């Protein structure tokens, strides 16, 4: 990892991270019926937002604001429990900023830029030199200090975090058209024919929704945009395109600041915004050497550490043996005479005798009844699976009872189970 230094020490010391965490994530359908996408569980004990917050903390940033909006209760509760260790006497701060109609009493946050604009007075009180704007709904590890360094070295008005993706896969992103110095000369939202990277005709630069600004410049842009009729008050749609045309916007390649342990072969970034993508990213963690190393002690993923007893495996009879193969099992789980393969259990899951679980992502405090079979599923928090339920063997029946994706993954929630009993 590169040495971190600025004019008077690390730039992160005088920066503030501002996390945009108000989105619903509607493509996760029932998983976000009761919680915002950043509050969705991931990886056994974390929430999705913990990755952006941990990146900020591990990068040396000690002032953090989180803007919330959609069904924010579980997210706010998680932040209060897991991120309450910042101390003002150490020049640290952690602010949860729900949409509170600070600027006008007739609207909530209208867009990502408005979610910052409405809290300018709070940010100004902390006097940060730079603002790092972050999306709160992606899985990745990144050192923002390196991005701050590039921003200052190149004298940019805005530095945009970018992923290098195959051009054929870039049509769903905002794509940066850059010159040989990585200056952004055009910004295209979801283009049918994405512009290629210089010298790499098959690759494109897709925006990660991560931006670095000098604070005063950002405030000027937000105030200008707020006074512009017809603006959607959005960074990707309004602020960034304006700066590309009238200022200096620079691309920062994620590959230059991604954090990898010795076990991670390639830069890792995932948008787990669909049930299929969510299932795949969690199940991938069960690989012998997964693409994402959650065991990297040099870049820990901080979260709310719930106090639980160790996981427990009981019964050792033929056909009724508590065992797990190629699986992650969190604290408080009891595998009681059940067979678990290539699955991930969150905190407090109970698997009862003679049940068979395979390729399953099971959220906290689920109780799986005896003689159940669950394959290729995501089970929401607190669901009680009735005895003998079989999922993953009959696609037609599964689709009638549960939310079944095109790739054959079944999402199971308690209301769906309750309808089976009606």
Automatic annotation (TrEMBL):
GO terms for biological process: glycogen biosynthetic process. GO terms for molecular function: ATP binding; glucose-1-phosphate adenylyltransferase activity. Signal peptide: none annotated. Residues 18-286 form the Nucleotidyl transferase domain. Residues 309-412 form the Glucose-1-phosphate adenylyltransferase/Bifunctional protein GlmU-like C-terminal hexapeptide domain. It is an enzyme of class 2 (transferase). It catalyses: alpha-D-glucose 1-phosphate + ATP + H(+) = ADP-alpha-D-glucose + diphosphate. Its EC number is 2.7.7.27. Keywords: ATP-binding, Carbohydrate metabolism, Glycogen biosynthesis, Glycogen metabolism, Nucleotide-binding, Nucleotidyltransferase, Transferase. Pathway: Glycan biosynthesis; glycogen biosynthesis. InterPro entries: ADP-Glc_PPase (IPR011831), ADP_Glu_pyroP_CS (IPR005836), GlgC_bac (IPR023049), GlmU/GlgC-like_hexapep (IPR056818), NTP_transferase_dom (IPR005835), Nucleotide-diphossugar_trans (IPR029044), Trimer_LpxA-like_sf (IPR011004). The record marks 69, 108 as: Could play a key role in the communication between the regulatory and the substrate sites. SUPFAM superfamilies: Nucleotide-diphospho-sugar transferases, Trimeric LpxA-like enzymes. The keyword Nucleotidyltransferase applies. Pfam families: Hexapep_GlmU (PF24894), NTP_transferase (PF00483). Alpha-D-glucose 1-phosphate binds at residues 109, 174, 189-190, 207. Belongs to the bacterial/plant glucose-1-phosphate adenylyltransferase family. Homotetramer. Involved in the biosynthesis of ADP-glucose, a building block required for the elongation reactions to produce glycogen. Catalyzes the reaction between ATP and alpha-D-glucose 1-phosphate (G1P) to produce pyrophosphate and ADP-Glc. HAMAP family: GlgC (MF_00624). PANTHER family: GLUCOSE-1-PHOSPHATE ADENYLYLTRANSFERASE (PTHR43523:SF2), GLUCOSE-1-PHOSPHATE ADENYLYLTRANSFERASE-RELATED (PTHR43523). This is Glucose-1-phosphate adenylyltransferase. It comes from Prosthecodimorpha hirschii. The gene is glgC.
């Amino acid at each position: 990892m590169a040495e971190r230094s600025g004019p008077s020490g690390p730039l992160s010391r005088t920066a503030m991270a501002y996390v945009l965490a108000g989105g619903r994530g509607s493509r996760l359908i029932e998983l976000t019926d009761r919680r915002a996408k950043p509050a969705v569980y991931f990886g056994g004990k974390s929430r999705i937002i913990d990755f952006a917050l941990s990146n900020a903390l591990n990068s040396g940033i000690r002032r953090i604001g989180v803007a919330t909006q959609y069904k924010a209760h579980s997210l706010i509760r998680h932040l209060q429990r897991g991120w309450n260790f910042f101390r003002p006497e150490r020049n640290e701060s952690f602010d949860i900023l729900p949409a509170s109609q600070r600027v006008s009493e007739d609207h909530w946050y209208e867009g990502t830029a408005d979610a910052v604009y409405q809290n300018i007075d709070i940010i100004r009180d902390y006097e940060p030199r730079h603002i790092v704007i972050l999306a709160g709904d992606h899985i990745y590890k990144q050192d923002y200090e390196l991005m701050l360094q590039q921003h200052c070295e190149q004298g940019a008005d805005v530095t945009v975090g970018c992923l290098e993706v195959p051009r054929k896969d870039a049509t769903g992103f905002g794509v940066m058209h850059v010159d040989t110095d990585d200056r952004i000369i055009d910004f295209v939202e979801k283009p049918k024919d994405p512009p290629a990277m210089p010298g790499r005709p098959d690759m494109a630069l897709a925006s990660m929704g991560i931006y670095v600004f000098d604070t005063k410049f950002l405030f000027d842009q937000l105030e200008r945009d707020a006074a512009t009729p017809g603006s959607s008050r959005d960074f990707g749609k309004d602020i960034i395109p304006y700066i590309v045309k009238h200022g200096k916007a620079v691309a920062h390649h994620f590959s230059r600041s991604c954090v990898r342990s010795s076990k991670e072969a390639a830069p890792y970034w995932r948008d787990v915004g669909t049930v299929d993508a969510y299932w795949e990213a969690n199940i991938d963690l069960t690989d012998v050497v997964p693409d994402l190393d959650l065991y990297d002690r040099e870049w820990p993923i901080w979260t709310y550490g719930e106090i639980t007893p160790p996981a427990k495996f009981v019964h050792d009879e033929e056909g009724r043996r508590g065992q797990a193969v190629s699986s992650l099992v969190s604290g408080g789980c009891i595998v009681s005479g059940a067979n678990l393969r290539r699955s991930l259990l969150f905190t407090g899951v109970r698997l009862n005798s003679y049940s068979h679980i395979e390729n399953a992502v099971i959220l906290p405090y689920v109780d799986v009844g005896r003689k159940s079979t669950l394959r290729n599923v995501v089970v929401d928090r607190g669901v009680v699976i009735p005895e003998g339920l079989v999922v993953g063997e009959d696609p037609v029946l599964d689709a009638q009872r549960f939310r079944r994706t095109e790739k054959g993954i079944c999402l199971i929630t308690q209301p769906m189970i309750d309808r089976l009993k009606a």
